[in-house]
Amino acid sequence: MSGNGTDPADVASDDGVETIADELLDQALAERRALVGLCLYALDRASSGVVERIEEGLSTIGVVAIRADGERFDPSLHEAGGTVPTDDLALQGLVAETEVPGFCDRGRLLRAPIVTVYTAR
Questions:
Q1: For the whole model, what pTM was predicted?
Q2: Model confidence at 2: pLDDT above 90
Q3: Which of 23, 73, 97, 121 is deepest in the core (most CB within 10 A)?
């Protein structure tokens, strides 16, 4: 042991701290994903008041609900759950209603919204 900070054991302990920090971060992120997943599961089964509260809570950590009403249907962003016939050609291909909201976590899609789409009669 040299006492001047150049001992290999000192360097290894610094790397060990970094490794432990990385492991703790990975564990925290995995636990966050699990909790968000559990919230989405509960949200799908909850009353409207509880849904509102869960959505508010999730939004404080960057998980936001996606309701696509009035947007152009995009199969890469939306899941079609059904169609509604319309005579208004301006509505054709637009989302008439969000059946089940989707969720996005800081820009990363967690779940696409299930929507009803206007189609020409």
A1: 0.77
A2: no
A3: 73
